[in-house]
Amino acid sequence: MRTPVIAGNWKMYKTLAESVDFVRELAPRLAPFTNVERVVCPTFVALAAVGAELKRTDHTDIHVGAQSVHWEAQGAFTSQISPTMLQGIAEYVIIGHSECRAYLGETDEQVNKKVKAALKHGLKPIVAVGESLQQNEAGETATFVGGQVRAALVDVSADEMANVIIAYEPIWAIGTGRSADGATANNIIGGTIRATLAELYGSDVAQSVRIQYGGSVKPDNMAEYMSQPDIDGALVGGASLKVNDFVALVEIAAREKGTQGA
Ligand code: PGA
Q1: CATH code: domain of residue 85
Q2: Is the pLDDT of residue 104 over 70?
């Protein structure tokens, strides 16, 4: 069975102090939903402090993720953060987010290098893929998204896939208030992404990898996604910045997936 996973991608929001205050309020309210995996992805500068706050308040079942990583362990790469620097601070790392691809020029090849580096250093990648509006309207979604998945996973072994999460985030749905409907998202996730994984790794691996939906996920559309059989959670931007919304998303995932905590 795939444990649903809800990850809050805080992007370039919340200062260090705001991140710590937020998680102090959020963590106890997420605590009851033990069968949904809950992840917060603050900015790099708040990662250690958020982790320390979770430890101090005994909420270590809330996991911490970074929003990117470099592929080298160290080197002359001004501004970059290496996987070894994240060890012990972050458990997850988002790789290939469409904002990094669009604004920072991250390529499929770099995404693959980052995924491999993360895995090598014990970090769990959340690999984001998704098509543009233009590609969607041209009917190219399956080919494009399938290609992104293949490119991200070059030389990643079947065993390593146990530590990989994929997030399907149609670019036109991110931060726009426009979201894919549940059945369409399920179709891409099940019909395209799982089918691609099955070709690469066989059906057991394809059925065991967790695949999230992302893009304007809110409490009022969460049930639509979580009621879909192939969608195992959500990667959430805007709504994860509000305590009540974050709690509602996790509560809905627990209810719809039938995995309410004890
Ligand atoms: P959004 O962002 O929920 O604000 O659309 C999702 C994401 O970028 O991961």
Answers
A1: 3.20.20.70
A2: yes
Report if residue 105 sits inside a domain.
Answer: yes
Q: Is the pLDDT reported for residue 226 higher than 80?
A: yes
Q: Torsion angle of alpha carbons 73, 14, 226, 115, nearest 10°?
A: -10
Residue ID of nearest Cα to ligand 1 atom 6: 237
The vertex-13 CA angle with 214 and 118, nearest 5°, equals 60
Please state the separation of Cα 197 from the chain's center in Å. Answer: 17
Ligand 1 neighbours by CB, cut-off 6 Å: 9, 169, 174-175, 214-217, 235-239
CA–CA dist 35, 56 (Å, integer): 22
- Is 169 assigned a catalytic role? yes
Q: Is residue 161 part of a domain?
A: yes
What is residue 242's predicted lDDT score, i.e. its pLDDT? 98
Tell me how many domains the chain contains: 1
Is the confidence at residue 259, as pLDDT, over 90? no
Domain that holds residue 191: 5-256
Question: Is 0.85 topped by the overall pTM?
Answer: yes
Q: Which of 131, 169, 224, 251 is catalytic?
A: 169
Q: Show contacts of 15-20: CB within 8 Å, 24+ apart.
A: 15/46, 16/45, 16/46, 16/49, 19/43, 19/46, 19/49, 19/50, 20/46, 20/49, 20/50, 20/53
Q: What share of the chain is helix, strand, coil (3-state, %, to 5)?
A: 50, 15, 35
Beta bridge partners of 94: 126
| Residue 149 identity (one-letter amino acid) | V
Displacement of CA 77 from its chain's centroid (Å)? 25
